[in-house]
Amino acid sequence: GTIFPSIIEFQRINKIKKLEVIFAGHNFSNIQKSKKKVLKALKISKIDFSKINFKVSFYPNKKNKKQTYKDILKNEKNLSCAIVAVPDHLHYQVINECLDHDLHTLAVKPFTIKTSDARKLIEKKNKKKIFGLVEFHKRFDKHNMLLKNSFESKKLGEPLYFNVEYSQKKIIPEKIFKNWSAKTNILQYLGIHYVDMVHFITKAIPIRV
To answer: How remote is the C-alpha of 194 from its chain's centroid?
Structure first.
């Protein structure tokens, strides 16, 4: 819903001559739903694909065929980077394997469930001298950019504390994330955005949350 349109926008601006995107899921029917969304996004992107080499692949590509991201990491020799968007509790495992294959890796938030796991991944990517980043897209919401600009221009004075209230439809944990929502919590997959926003705007380092 957000990642592939961002890749399209990146390609529209940068016009890379050869770009291949590989989608890896664990369920054939779900990957087919993703494929429909991707084709729709490509159709409305207004990119002239006759002038660029742009390929999109999907795994598993056959019903009842067992294919995972592990197969792609093992068999694809020209991978440049990975974007990890899996259930929260699987972040460490998948990111770690991507780093083992020397891939620059971008992960959706939250980075990891455990601080100890986060430290291991940071140490590994630093040792390998590759990029490892977490995608906090709310930094680029217009109202948050305006807030950051107001803070930096000294219009607000010095903040003493922040109070954040957020809500989410019950359909998210009860239906959309129902297979793994019990393995995370609302702070990790939603509230973490606001921990990051306070840091992004003020440069303050969280002591406790």
So the answer is: 16
Q: Facing residues of 24 across strands?
A: 59
pLDDT digits (tens, 9 = 90+) for 129-187: 999 999 998 998 999 999 999 999 998 888 888 888 878 888 888 888 888 888 888 88
Tokens of residue 33, six digits = 């739903």
Whole-angstrom distance, CA of residue 160 vs CA of residue 42: 46
Residue 170 gets which letter from DSSP? T
Nearest to 58 by CA among 83, 81, 29: 29
Distance CA 83, CA 103 (A): 10
Neighbouring residues of 4: CB distance < 8 A, sequence distance ≥ 6: 21, 37, 38, 41
Name the region of 62 (left: φ>0; alpha: ψ -120 to 50; beta: rest): beta
pLDDT for the residue numbered 64: 61
Give alpha helix (H) positions in the chain: 3-14, 28-44, 69-75, 91-100, 115-128, 142-152, 171, 186, 192-202
pLDDT in tens, 18-59: 888 998 887 788 788 888 888 887 777 777 766 667 788 888
Helix (H, G, I), strand (E, B) or coil at 132: strand
Cβ pair 166, 190 in contact under 8 A: yes
Q: Which residue has the tokens 């899921």?
A: 25
Higher pLDDT, 196 or 47: 196
